[in-house]
Design a protein that fits this description.
The structure is a single chain. The mean pLDDT is about 95. The longest helix is centred in the middle third of the chain and has 21 residues. This protein folds into 2 domains: about 130 residues, Rossmann fold (3-Layer(aba) Sandwich), CATH 3.40.50.720; about 120 residues, N-(1-d-carboxylethyl)-l-norvaline Dehydrogenase, domain 2 (Orthogonal Bundle). The chain is α/β, with parallel strands linked by helices. Helices cover about 45% and strands about 10% of the residues.
């Protein structure tokens, strides 16, 4: 197959390694890394498209995305959105999510990913990568957004392993409630995209969200943190998600970050 990956950052390159190892042809699009390659050049011959562009840049990116390519099988591998409305014109849209740090994929470490389309098995599955299929597109999407917000809280409490364990326990329960309240299947929280990604993101300095929480606890200003880390998807999530008294842990983390 011919696969186009849009976004040649660390995660896009990691997925590209899997694609190449599985014998597929690969084209990247990323104007920062490959300014001479246009979207049309990267996607025109693609049998499937993988989007790895940070979620806060997606709305503006999709405004320029050619309509002719919206019928191709397309996987969103970016996390942080609470709705797929901006992809409503895509006729074959799916999500790829799960507990994966880019460097560990590059190092050949085993991982489990959740996908909402069986085609992901053909593209990514091998001895290193296991793909589990879940038809709950909204639930997979929300899990990827919620865990980023909770990871900020975990980082804020990282001086106590007991506190982090308690937070993850509460975050998992609240994720199930949030999914149920928003038309998704709460059991999606039990998959790799749910509890797996939650545990990973809430327990590692590799996570920018976790690191953001640690810096907040140290008294750093959020604007300075965002300038330093560049991308903190959990902050975007706290702005986008329904953060109110129905979800006390999310509300608490938003107040820690100075958002509420």
């Amino acid at each position: 197959m011919n696969i186009a990956i849009l976004g040649a950052g660390a995660y896009g390159r990691a997925l590209g390694k899997i694609v190449s190892n599985n014998g597929h042809d690969l084209n990247f699009y990323d104007p920062k890394v490959m300014p001479d390659v246009s979207i049309k050049q990267a996607v025109a011959k693609a049998d499937a498209v993988i989007i790895c562009i940070p979620s806060n840049f997606l709305p503006s990116f999709l405004e320029e995305y050619p309509d002719d390519f919206k019928n191709k099988p397309t996987f969103l591998a970016s996390k942080g959105l609470r709705t797929v409305d901006i992809f409503k014109d895509f006729t074959n849209f799916a999500i790829l999510s799960g507990p994966t740090f880019a460097q560990e994929i590059m190092d050949g470490k085993q991982s489990v990913l959740t996908a909402t389309n069986q085609l992901a098995v053909d593209i990514f599955s091998n001895q290193q990568i296991e793909i589990e299929i879940c038809q709950d597109l909204q639930g997979v999407l929300l899990c990827g957004s919620l865990k980023n917000a909770y990871a900020i809280g975990a980082g804020f409490n990282s001086d106590s392993e007991n506190a982090v364990a308690a937070l993850v326990t509460k975050a998992h329960a609240e994720t199930r409630k949030y999914l149920l309240d928003h038309g998704a299947n709460p059991d999606t929280a039990e998959l790799a995209c749910g509890i797996g990604d939650l545990v990973l993101t809430c327990s590692s300095d590799t996570s920018r969200n976790y690191t953001c929480g640690k810096k907040l606890h140290a008294g750093q200003n959020l604007d300075d943190i965002l300038t330093e880390l560049q991308t903190v998807e959990g902050i975007n999530a706290l702005h986008e998600l329904d953060v109110d008294d129905n979800y006390p842990l999310l509300l608490h983390i938003a107040r820690i970050a100075g958002i509420k």
